[in-house]
Every structure is written in structure tokens, then in C-alpha cells.
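Figure 3 (text version): C-alpha cells given as input.
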């Protein structure tokens, strides 16, 4: 894997160290995450964040373990880091960090206090909400190490205040149980019980959200470090509290070995691919219904659109087709009126996309094509035919095939945003894209052809599907090319205000990246030509991927910053989306454009934000600072897939 390590110039600089985040997951949707500097900059940062009934219903438990080194003289040096609502940063343990590295996906810190060097490494048990934190004396000593257990128990999206009840902490052998929800175990536990008021999260402040909360200092562990090699370790776990995990050092070693096996199974071609393979592993989680995909950490759960766009990269490019097979079968069971369920993140199952179902057709087709698993194709064939039938008849939100041209239209309900560009500000869609979006119809054409092939593989006649496909292709080729030299983004979109006697609809010519799918999909309706792809690249392409809107547009927003309304307003109006590098790479390759150097910028990004991973978004203007989730499934998956295909 690529070498990810930082010395004191980054670790000791709060701006640089706190901007780089690490992530370790438990395979269930829970995680531990934080920054290189040790400063918690998000409400989501913690050492034990536990998934609930769905991956999105997470709760923060163990916030931190603040180390303090106590010398024989009684001198005490604190190694933690906190920012407070007063603006103070205290303690400033990051100033003593001499190195941070991410090895086999596991974070490791090294502090130097004169001749005393202490190392911390951290891992989670795969398949159980359990974190192990190991501290090792590297040189110097003897010293004592105190570890302050800072706790809460709250929804990951919220905060807890001292004006409410304090967390219940019950002593048990070797530690304590907090709120009957998670258990702490380590050496020489001493209960404390004190509010630490006004912990500040600078990233939440930057996002226009409540940045402050109060933390509960539950108690401390303490152990001696007499000679180099001695360790002081703490375990924290949820779930079966009476079932003690293996020793912390064993948890770390076991997880390191598993991570190496995951990478080896994918047979990566180079260190970047190995790094992306391990990054992909974080998003594949086990649930009560089988494998699923977390769209992004630290705040997303499972979203079917993200899952299906990510499918080939996460499962087929990493040799996890058996898990993928079960996922596809489980998602097929959610089909209703020809639509795939989108998400349960909101607390209820929602059917509110025009494209997730079409991405599902694509994922099944790719699975069968890549693996030869025709049994799955045969099993799902009735459901997939039901999707086409429902779209021909018309389904929710006015999603239907237009009998006039065979293209797919959507958005018959006011206030809806059904494509992947679905941001709303105060309930009003920023980009409703009502009508016939270009990528939706590219996916429709692609889905019909893929289903026709699956039908023929099953020994059935696919004539009706091919006729639907041919009609849609002809209409696509006739209608989507625009006078601008690229493709219309949406056809037949309602005109908001036309003079009396003017047209009721118009065709949207804004330069957006959605048209890339018209050239990149396996059964794309168009063959790309070099001049057109160059025009699209000239207006949209950045080192981290295509922008969502050309800077030439009056509606372009170059910074994805500010409060929720500002960020949502910019989300698809110029913000960069790294996942779109996948479609762009495919389109460029088919247009005989070079792609060898396409990934240089985003590969460098692997050490800049979410370490070893790829961010959700970035600013549309240079220097294209990363935004959104630091760890995003479709960003990782499409980079992995596109790099593999470029070989």
C-alpha cells in the first residue's frame, strides 16, 4: 500500500494535522475516527461509534482516551488535544508528536517527551463493535501512563449537554459500563465523574451546525511502563457486554492480518490499488439482511443509488462477488412498482429516485458479465422484467416511458428531485431536472440492452426488449446532441416563464457531467468523439474529478462551504465529484484520449483528507479543497474500477 506517514511538521501543526482524518471500521457500520493531531474536529469523532439497527443509526460512546505521562518525579505531561468554546486548545499533546503513520489501515501515533517515546495503535474487531487501544513504551522509562476515559452516549448527529442527566457509569471488574450500552476495560480503573464543558468541533462550526457539546470524564485507567516493550491497553465494546474480547494486542494483530488478507485477495497491481482495496473494505458491512454498503463516513448509511454505482468497484474489482451476489438478491427484494428502495436512513424505507433502479439493472448485468453467474441472472430475471414493465406503464413521481419517443421522463410531482443531483434548500430542489435527464436515459438504454442479453442467456426471446432499446437509442441520438457541441442535460424540461404563445418546454444546454454516461456505459447510446469529450473536459475536469457545472454558467458556485443552505445550494452547481472520474475515464478512453496521467491528482489526494480514501466532494475552484464525507464509497469504487480498466 502507499506510504502514509507524517512527521512533526504536520503532526505539530494544528491546521495541517487536524485536516487529515483516519478511519477504522467494525464491519457493521460503526467506526473509530479522528485526526492525525488527535484533535476532535467533528461531533462524529470518537473511538467507539456504534451502529444501530441500520448503519446510519449510530451512537457515539467512547469519545477519547486522553493519555498523560507521569514521571517518577511526579511531573505530568498530557498528550491529548481538545479545543474549547473559549477558543483555547488545551492540552496540546500534538506538539509532542514526532510521527503518525497509517500501516495496514491502522493508525499509529508516536509521542516524544525527551528520551521517553510512547506509541499508540488502535484497531477494531471486524464483525463486533469493539475497539482496542494499545500504548507501548518505545524508549526511556520507567513512567506511569494515565488514560482519561471521556465518554458520552448520544446520537452521532447531535450533542449532549451538562444541563441534562449525566451518563450512568456502573463499576464492573476491570472497568465500568456506561449507560448500560458499552463497557470499558483496562488496568487500575479509578472512577471520576465530571463534566468537561464546551468541547468545540471546528468542522461543525464551518458547516454552520452547532459546534459545542459537553463531555463526561468517567474515570481513568493507569498502568506502569517500566521498560521498552511494555504496554498499557484499553478495550471498549458494545453489544454483548458480558462477553469480553481478546486482549487488545491480539485485537490489533488480528485486524492487521485480516486487512492484509483483504488486500491480497484482490490481487492489486500496485500500491495505490492496494490502498483503494482496503478503503473499499470499510464500506462493505454486515446487516441483519446480509451485506450492504455504507455510502460514506462519518455520517451516511446505506443508499441504493450509491450502492449500485459502487457495486463493480467494491465487489467485482476486489474479488468479493459472493458477497455481492447476496447483496443484489437482498436489494431485489425491495423492488416495489418497478422501483428500488432508496434508503432507510431517514427512519423509513423511501422510493424516491429515478436512477437507482437503473443502476441496479447495470449492477446485475455487470455481475453476470464479469463472473459468469448466470444462475443469479436467471433468478432475478422476472424482477428485472417487472422493472421495465412498470416503467412502460408508469410508476411513482411520473416516471414513465414517453410513448412519443421511447425515452424515460420523470418529475411529475412538484418539489421533487429524483436524480443524483437531489439537493434541496428549504425543501425546494436546487436542480429538479424535471423531464428527460441525459444520464437517466443513457442508463435506460444501457439497462434495456443488458436485460436483453440476460434474457437471451436464459434461453428466452428478447425481441421486445431489443425493439425498445433500438427506439430509445434512435431518439437519444436524434434529440440529445445540442448546438453547443455537447449534449443537452435535460430534454423537455418545463419552462418556468415563457412569453404568451411561447414553448411550454425547453431543452437544458447547461454543461454538466451527466452526459458522460452517454459514452461510458457498456451499452452506451453514443460513441464518443474526441472534440466533444475535450469540450466537456475543458469546462469540467479538475485534478479531483469533474465539476457538476461549468464555471461559465451564471449559476456556478465555486466553493462548497458555509451552512446547510449554502452547501446544498453549491452541491451540484459547480462542486467537484470524484466518482465522476470513472465515467470520464471510460469516455476518454473510448474517444482515444490519453488517460495515463488522469489519476495523478486524486492519487495524491489519498494522503490529504480522509487518509487512504477519497472524499465525497471538493470545491469547484482551485485548490479544490476536499469537502463532504472524507470517506465516500462511490468515490473509492469508481477510482478503483477506472484504474483497473485503464491497465
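Below: residues designed for each position.
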Amino acid at each position: 500500500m502507499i506510504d502514509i506517514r507524517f512527521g512533526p511538521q504536520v503532526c505539530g501543526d494544528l491546521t495541517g494535522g487536524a485536516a487529515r482524518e483516519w478511519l477504522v471500521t467494525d464491519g457493521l457500520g460503526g467506526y473509530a475516527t479522528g485526526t492525525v493531531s488527535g484533535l476532535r474536529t467533528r461531533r462524529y469523532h470518537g473511538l467507539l461509534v456504534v451502529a444501530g439497527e441500520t448503519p446510519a443509526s449510530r451512537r457515539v460512546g467512547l469519545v477519547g482516551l486522553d493519555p498523560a505521562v507521569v514521571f517518577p518525579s511526579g511531573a505530568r505531561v498530557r498528550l491529548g488535544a481538545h479545543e474549547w468554546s473559549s477558543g483555547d486548545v488545551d492540552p496540546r499533546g500534538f506538539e509532542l508528536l514526532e510521527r503518525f503513520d497509517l500501516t495496514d489501515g491502522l493508525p499509529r501515533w508516536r509521542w516524544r517527551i525527551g528520551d521517553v517515546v510512547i506509541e499508540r495503535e488502535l484497531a477494531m474487531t471486524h464483525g463486533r463493535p469493539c475497539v482496542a487501544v494499545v500504548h507501548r513504551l518505545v524508549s526511556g522509562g520507567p513512567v506511569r501512563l494515565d488514560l482519561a476515559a471521556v465518554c458520552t452516549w448520544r446520537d452521532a448527529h447531535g450533542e449532549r449537554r451538562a444541563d441534562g442527566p449525566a451518563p450512568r457509569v456502573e463499576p464492573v471488574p476491570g472497568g465500568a459500563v456506561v449507560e448500560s450500552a458499552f463497557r470499558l476495560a483496562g488496568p487500575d480503573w479509578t472512577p471520576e465523574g465530571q463534566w468537561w464543558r464546551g468541547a468545540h468541533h471546528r468542522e461543525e462550526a464551518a458547516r454552520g451546525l452547532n459546534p459545542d457539546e459537553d463531555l463526561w470524564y468517567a474515570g481513568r485507567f493507569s498502568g506502569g511502563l517500566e521498560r521498552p516493550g511494555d504496554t498499557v491497553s484499553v478495550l471498549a465494546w458494545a453489544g454483548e457486554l458480558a462477553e469480553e474480547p481478546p486482549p487488545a494486542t491480539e485485537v490489533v494483530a488480528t485486524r492487521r492480518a485480516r486487512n492484509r488478507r483483504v488486500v491480497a485477495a484482490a490481487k492489486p497491481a500496485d500500491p495505490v490499488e492496494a490502498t483503494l482495496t482496503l478503503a473499499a473494505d470499510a464500506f462493505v458491512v454486515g446487516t441483519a439482511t446480509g451485506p450492504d454498503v455504507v455510502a460514506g463516513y462519518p455520517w451516511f448509511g446505506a443508499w441504493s443509488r450509491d450502492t449500485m454505482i459502487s457495486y463493480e468497484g467494491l465487489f467485482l474489482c476486489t474479488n468479493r462477488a459472493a458477497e455481492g451476489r447476496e447483496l443484489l438478491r437482498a436489494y431485489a427484494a425491495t423492488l416495489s412498482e418497478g422501483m428500488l428502495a432508496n434508503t432507510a436512513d431517514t427512519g423509513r424505507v423511501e422510493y424516491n429516485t429515478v436512477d437507482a433502479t437503473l443502476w441496479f439493472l447495470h449492477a446485475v448485468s455487470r455481475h453476470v458479465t464479469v463472473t459468469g453467474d448466470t444462475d443469479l441472472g436467471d433468478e432475478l430475471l422476472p424482477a428485472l422484467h417487472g422493472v421495465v414493465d412498470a416503467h412502460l406503464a408508469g410508476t411513482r413521481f411520473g416516471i414513465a416511458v414517453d410513448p412519443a419517443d421511447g425515452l424515460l421522463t420523470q418529475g411529475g410531482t412538484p418539489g421533487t428531485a429524483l436524480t443524483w443531483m437531489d439537493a434541496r434548500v428549504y425543501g425546494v430542489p436546487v436542480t429538479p431536472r424535471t423531464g428527460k435527464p441525459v444520464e437517466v436515459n443513457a442508463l435506460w438504454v444501457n439497462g434495456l440492452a443488458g436485460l436483453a442479453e440476460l434474457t437471451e442467456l436464459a434461453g428466452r426471446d428478447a425481441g421486445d426488449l431489443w425493439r425498445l432499446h433500438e427506439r430509445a437509442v434512435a431518439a437519444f441520438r436524434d434529440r440529445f446532441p445540442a448546438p453547443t457541441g455537447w449534449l443537452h442535460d435535460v430534454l423537455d424540461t418545463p419552462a418556468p416563464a415563457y412569453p404568451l404563445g411561447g414553448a411550454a418546454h425547453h431543452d437544458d444546454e447547461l454543461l454538466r457531467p451527466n452526459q458522460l454516461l452517454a459514452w461510458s456505459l457498456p451499452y452506451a447510446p453514443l460513441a464518443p468523439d474526441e472534440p466533444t469529450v475535450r469540450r466537456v473536459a475543458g469546462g469540467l475536469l479538475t485534478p479531483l474529478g469533474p465539476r457538476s457545472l461549468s464555471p461559465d454558467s451564471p449559476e456556478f458556485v465555486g466553493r462548497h462551504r458555509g451552512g446547510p443552505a449554502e452547501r446544498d445550494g453549491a452541491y451540484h452547481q459547480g462542486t467537484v465529484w470524484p466518482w465522476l472520474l470513472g465515467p470520464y475515464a471510460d469516455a476518454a478512453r473510448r474517444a482515444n484520449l490519453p488517460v495515463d496521467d488522469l489519476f495523478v491528482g486524486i492519487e495524491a489526494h489519498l494522503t490529504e483528507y480522509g487518509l487512504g480514501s477519497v472524499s465525497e466532494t471538493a470545491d469547484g475552484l482551485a485548490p479544490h479543497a476536499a469537502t463532504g464525507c472524507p470517506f465516500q464509497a462511490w468515490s473509492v469504487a469508481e477510482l478503483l474500477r477506472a484504474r483497473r480498466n485503464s491497465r
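Residues 310 and 349 are 20 Å apart (CA to CA).
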